[in-house]
Every structure is written in C-alpha cells, then in structure tokens.
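step: validate -> pass
step: tokenize input -> pass
step: predict -> running
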Amino acid sequence: MFFFFFDDDRVKYQPGTVCRVVGRDEGKTVVIHQISEDTLWCYENRPVRHRINRQGVKVIDFDPACILSPYGYDVLEITNEIPLQTDGWGAKYRRQG
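step: predict -> pass
step: emit ->
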C-alpha cells in the first residue's frame, strides 16, 4: 500500500477563500470562485452596489461576483481577516463553496 504525501500549498486554496493580491494589483482583496489546474478564478471582495429604478424599487446595480478574473497561485496570499459579503446576486454561489 502506497501513501502519497505531497508538500503543496495549493491544497489550502478552496472556493470561498478570501485572498490578498501580492503582485500586479497590490492590496486588492479577492474571493476564490473556481479552481483550474494552474489558475484561480476570483472576483473582488467588494459590497454589492444598489440603485433605485424609475418605479422606486431598489435593484442591484453591480455585483462583483459576476466578473471573474484569472490569478496564479504565486500572486495570491490567503487572508481570512475580511468578511465575505452575503447579499447580492452571487451570494448563493458564494455559500456553496
């Protein structure tokens, strides 16, 4: 029986994890949505913007979870000090992770 132990930091990256960008967009916080082989698809950890339409109804103007950007493992640093938002169109997908 063989057991494979590997020392790979990629195991700790899971969907829903809050990370800080260390390279090109220094200080930006993102949330991992999907993991490919060498790519982490993330969206910004910003609040959802609302607006009032002409009928006077509050609607979602912009949800950051709708826009995914690719990042590499070497660019992201895990931090869970920033709470994940729970409202908006993409909230149900954020809770699945």
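step: describe -> The chain has one domain: 15-96.
step: cleanup -> pass
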